[in-house]
Every structure is written in C-alpha cells, then in structure tokens.
Amino acid sequence: MGRLDTLDAVGVKALDYYAHQDERQLEAESLGRRARALHLLGEISNLKGDVDVALARFTLAAQTTKRQLELDPTNPQRIFDHAQSVFWLGLLAYYEGRYSDVRPAFDEYLAFAEQLVAIDGEDERWLTELFYAHQNLGALLVEQQRWQEAVVSFDRALEVLVELEQLGYPQTQSRADLNSWLRDAHLPQLNFEQAQFHSAQETIGYQTLLEQDPGNAMYRMALAVSFRGDAKFAMINNDIEGALGLLLPQQMEIMQLIAVEPDNTALLEQQALLYRQISSIRLLQGEWELAASLANTCKELAESLQKRNDSNLFWRTGIDWPCTHIVAAVALHLGQIAQASDKVNSYFPQLMKMYEDNTAGRDVEMVLANSALLLGDIALASGNQSEAVTYWQQVNTVLGDEPESLTPRSIVVLITALKLSLIHI
Fold first, then answer.
1. Within the chain, which residues score under 50 in pLDDT?
2. 108 near 79, Cβ under 8 Å?
3. What's the start-to-end Cα distance of the chain, in Å?
4. CA distance 77 to 281
C-alpha cells in the first residue's frame, strides 16, 4: 500500500467515526477535527486525480468551517480552519483554469492570514499562513503573466520568512520553494542573473534538506524539479550536454518515487514534464526518432493523467499538446506532411478557442504560437504559400500585441515567424 493509500485509509476511519455521531451534539473542537480530516482526505483525493471527490470533501469541510467561524468569529482556530477550506477550493479552481474564481478565494485566504497575525504576530503557524497567502497570490500572477506584480507578492512573502527566521523558526524548505517562484517571475522579464540566482538557491535549499533527511520523498521530488529549472539556464547558455546531465538522472529518480506512490499525480506530472523537456532538447540536437519516442511517452503519460482528471487544464496545455507538437515537428522533418498536419490539428481548433475565449493561462499562448508556426511550415511544404503566411502572421497576433509579456522562448518564435512572413509574402 502506498503512502497516499495509507493516509486515505486513516482519514476515512476518522470520518467513519464522526459519521456515527450526531452533528448537532458534536462540540466545536470535534467539528473542527472533522473538517481537518476532510481537508486531509480532499488533499489526498486531489493528488490521486479524484477531483470530484476532492471537491466534495473540501465543500463539505467549508460548510462546517464557515458555520463554526460564524459562531465564534474571533477564535483563531476557527479562522484557521475556514482559511484552509477557502484555500483548497481556490486551488482546485486554479488547477482547472477558473482564474476568475481563484483571485477572490486567494484574497480571502490572505485576509484570514492577516487577521491571524493581528491576533498573535509571533505565532509560527499564523506567520506561515501569511507567507503562503502572499506566495499563492504571486503564483496566480505568474500564471496570468503579471510578472512585476508577482515579484511584489513574492517579496512580501520573503519579508514574512525573514520575520519567522528572526523568531527562531528555520525556513529552508519555504525559501527553496519561494526561490523557484521568483525564478519563474524573473525569467520572462529577461532578468537572467536574478532568475539563475534563485534557481541555484532552490537547488541548494533542497540539497540541504536532503542531507538532513535523505529518505524524504517530497524533498527528493522537489530536488528533481529544481534540476529541471537549472537545466533551462544550461540551455540558455547553449550548454546542451550540461542540461542533459542534469535531466537524465532524474528519470530514474522519479521512477523510483512513483514505484512507492503510483497514484501520486504530482509525481506522474513531473515524469511527463521531464520527458517533455528532454524530448525538446533531442529535437534541437536533430535526434529525430529519439525526440519523437520521448514525446510520445510524454503524450501517453499526459493522456493517462487526463483520464484521472480531465478538468486539469495544465495537463492538456502544458504537457499533452506541447508533446504532440514535437511529434508533429519530427513527422514534418521526415517528410510525413499529412501525419504532421493531423497531429497539430488534433488539438489546434480547441487551443484556438481557448485563446479566443481567454479561458487559459500562460501555456496557451506559447503552445498556440509554436503550433501556428509549425502549421505555416506544413502549409509551405504542401505548396500553399499564402496559407503559410497567414499562419505565421497569426503568431504575431498572438505574441506581438503585448511585448512586455514576451519570454526568451516566445521572442525566438516571434522573430522566426516574422522573418518567414517577410520572405514568403
């Protein structure tokens, strides 16, 4: 039995106990413990991809914690319990790309955290909540490509960490996690030195934690993720072998972690992302068959994840479709024009609709631009020059309207499309 299944079984037993009690007769502390059990079970269900079960559990918990807070609005434990309900419901909306629902939830969570700190500004638990609240808002702003605002939120989170450290509470893990987000906020702004610094600090942080606790699965996964971040900078510095040297050992590491927790979708997601990243490098190296093989594995993993939870937007826009794009690019290079076209068009109409409806996050614009660029190449290879130019001009429409949002990758794609348009117009 994996760790998630063990925790799930314990949580179910706790709920079974409360199910045999008359809720009207339960004291406030008992109701609070039941809500916390529901939070735990909801978190486990979410990790296993059972999003409907997770939503039901978090909603039930929220009903209890809201009622308890209304009865005792200045009790810090009641505030904390309901803040967790609000956070988890907001996070599920975040995963599903319902960003208009996320911001109110994260703002409310921040308000509860500020209320707790106002009650006791030296309590580690309440300061930690305030840290999470600022970091969560920053993460949302990164997803919305509001990079500078994200940095402001992360800087506020850092101020809270410093305060915690001054009170004698080590924050190695929180610092490492925050550094990963600061990297993601600075890199699109072309602040390479700052971004690389934060990426390195993330890796150092998790290496330190693993030295203290070598068997910790969460730290092992986080370190593998941080190496993926470091590999991005190796690629920026044109060090392909250095990037592969960071990435390839993580395949075995993630596989070992999955063997223990085969239902942990966070691990399965990281495995898919690792294949995506390596396949894109192999594509750049001209290792066509290897790139396609890795991308197909990535696509299979993404499809497996979507069978667990088809409402998770990132598994489509951030994994499945980018890997399908790589398979199509290989097919075009090998002269398989019809196959390449079929692959891209298997997702392009849905992707275009998401873009037009403004219902997706930062991944959609990049995938759409890459796909339009490739469709232009496919059209040109088919002898349809005017259609090719139309697709390349579409890249400019997607990426060129907001220059301040351009990332290093999107700049390359935009310049390529513009050059092709000028040559073939």
1. 1-2, 14, 17-22, 25-26
2. no
3. 61
4. 49
CB 147 within 8 A of CB 181: no
Choose among 225, 218, 179, 181: nearest CA to 202. Answer: 179
> What pLDDT does 18 receive?
47
Residue 335: CB atoms within 10 A of its CB come to: 9
- 3-class SS at 109? helix
362-381 helix and 321-333 helix, angle to the nearest 10 degrees:
20
- From residue 399, give the alpha-carbon distance in Å to each of 138, 340, 404: 23, 23, 10
From CA 348, how far away is CA 368, in angstroms rounded? 7
The predicted model scores a pTM of 0.85
What's the confidence (pLDDT) of residue 2?
47
From CA 295, how far away is CA 320, in angstroms rounded?
A: 9
Q: Is the distance from CB of 85 to CB of 66 less than 8 angstroms?
A: yes
- Could you give the C-alpha distances from 209 to 115, 116, 138, 172, 205, in angstroms and in order? 31, 29, 24, 7, 6
What's the DSSP call for residue 361?
A: -
Q: What letter represents residue 54's amino acid? A: A
CA-nearest of 11, 6, 51 to 35 is 11
Integer-rounded Cα radius of gyration of the chain: 23
| Whether 371 contacts 351, CB under 8 Å | yes
Closest residue by Cα to residue 277 from 297, 262, 257: 297
